[in-house]
Amino acid sequence: MELVQLEYFLAVAEYQSFRRAADAIRVSQPALSRAIQKLEGDLGAPLFVRTAQGVRLTPCGEAFLPHARQALAEVAAGARKVAELAGQARGVLHVGLIYSLGTRFLPDVIRTFTRTHPGVTVRLSEAPTQKLLQQLDAGEIDIAFCTPQHAPHLTLVEILQEELVAIVPLDHPLAAKDQCHLSDLAGEPFVAYARESGIRHVIERYCAEAGFTPRVAMEGVEDLTVAGLVAAGVGVAVVPLHAQLDQLPVHVLRLCEPCKRSVYMAWHTHTTLSPVARAFIAFVKRMCAP
């Protein structure tokens, strides 16, 4: 009995069709059928019966199914353990990130990490900070890159600080200047980030320190959406400084006050991390070390 036979058996059991199973696991249908026939010969009993709709498990197949699953799971667990002992992390890593990191910083991190850890597949999920924290709580992601305000159940490692700047439409009176005070924006209609975005609270705190509450005209989730609304004349905004702003018809003003937002790598403090997650965290820490 071979492992590939068990994999083929589970595929046919899941899809209830030799054709669909063959398509899913990318083998020819004759090869799949031969492997199942050999498995049935080794076991001395039929595992499937053909029906008008496809195939279904026989009583012997039903009895064999949980053992086949357990056998493959044990082999996979053993492979992960060997890889861990050998210092070669393998597996799938689920990473969540705020939208602004999807085009800067994190792509380089992921590319470099996967080059040095070819056995790791990284799956990304982009969302505002609040959604990412919910995904962490639900176990849907292993690590999040976000801007949490209060998260005592998380371990947080600051990975970068981004300068915040003001942006205004090109025909705005402030567009004649290179910099301004945050208080110069008081009374202006604001294009704000959605409330579930961690940066919204950072900007509101800076505005409060400058003596005003932003008058929100419209909200956006992504940096480019916010900047696009400013370009359309909806209002002004405070956003992280990045090169993509040069691609839009907005005027960038450096703020006289030192306004920054910190981005953190976060994971549950009391969750047992997989070897892949531990390897990734250590890698990011080394990259971001001063």
TrEMBL record:
Pfam family, one: LysR_substrate
Source organism (scientific name): Alicyclobacillus acidocaldarius subsp. acidocaldarius (strain ATCC 27009 / DSM 446 / BCRC 14685 / JCM 5260 / KCTC 1825 / NBRC 15652 / NCIMB 11725 / NRRL B-14509 / 104-IA) (Bacillus acidocaldarius)
Cellular component terms per the entry's GO annotation: protein-DNA complex
Residue ranges that the Swiss-Prot or TrEMBL entry lists as coiled coil: none
Domain HTH lysR-type: 1-58
Family: Belongs to the LysR transcriptional regulatory family.
Name of the protein this chain belongs to: Transcriptional regulator, LysR family
SUPFAM superfamilies in the cross-refs: Periplasmic binding protein-like II, Winged helix' DNA-binding domain
Keywords, comma-separated and alphabetical: DNA-binding, Transcription, Transcription regulation
Cross-referenced InterPro entries: LysR_HTH_N, LysR_subst-bd, WH-like_DNA-bd_sf, WH_DNA-bd_sf
Claim: Protein transport is one of the keywords in the record: no
Lineage: superkingdom: Bacteria
